[in-house]
Amino acid sequence: MAQITEVAPDLFRLTTFLAPFNLQFSQFLVRDEQPLLFHTGPRALFAEVKEAVASLIDVRTLRWIGFSHFEADECGSLPDWQQVAPQADAVCSLVGKMVSVDDCLALRPAKGMADGEVLQTGRYRFQFLATPHVPHCWESGLLFEETHRTLLCSDLFHQAGNGEPLTHSDVVGRCREVLMEYQQGPLANYMPYCTLTGPTLARLAALQPKTLATMHGSVYAGDGAQALRDLAHVFREVLGGGATMTTSSPS
């Protein structure tokens, strides 16, 4: 079963470490009136993740299945989840719904969210943030929980290894190490650097998150705004060749 850690009130990190990849894969369950699972995990991990979810809620009551973009670890087991949770609908960007999710993945039409739209699960409100190409993919988007200021940030702050579930220490340095390593092999440029990168990270920093819930690696608790500004510097250095790009902030 995946390792379970409550990283914020009613927010549970469900994590499996895959040694061949030296990488943790985390899903996040929000226990509320309308339970939300953010990231499904790849299909190979479905049984382990389902067991973890079942220890926290009745799986059949799962209402929302959210993810950032179209990728196996983000949404690969969506059909499996929708089969065991008959009321569960996918939550993704409007672009994701239109170009991929409804046609070739979801068993039922997804809830396609526009930038700034709010999903309320009961006690908690999640603002949807359209973040095209951040971390990657045209349809990318993130969720920000407004009460405890948690950013469900997908691949941002990606870290290697089997680290601690929650840390108050530096995660930006760990992320830089991964990016530097990846740039030397077949996974180079898995996060694009473009005119949207800097402004999008600045917009996320302006939310002043207190918790950064990343898929790969330790969740960070602390000054999320500064961490995002530091991450922008790392992206510019490692992925952008030190280039300075200016553009208007995404709406």
CATH fourth-tier homologous superfamily: Ribonuclease Z/Hydroxyacylglutathione hydrolase-like
Number of domains: 1
List the helices and strands in order: EEEEHEHHEHEEEEEEHHEEH
Q: What is the overall number of helices?
A: 7
Name the poorly predicted regions.
245-251
Specify the overall morphology.
globular
Helix content: 25-40%
CATH architecture: 4-Layer Sandwich
- The SS-based structural class is alpha/beta
Name of the CATH first level: Alpha Beta
Profile the largest sheet: 7 strands, mixed
Radius of gyration: 17 Å
How much beta, percentage-wise?
Answer: 25-35%
Biggest β-sheet: strands ordered side by side in the sheet: 1-2-3-4-5-6-7
Mean of pLDDT: 95
DSSP E strands, number: 14
Query: What name is given to the CATH topology?
Result: Metallo-beta-lactamase, Chain A
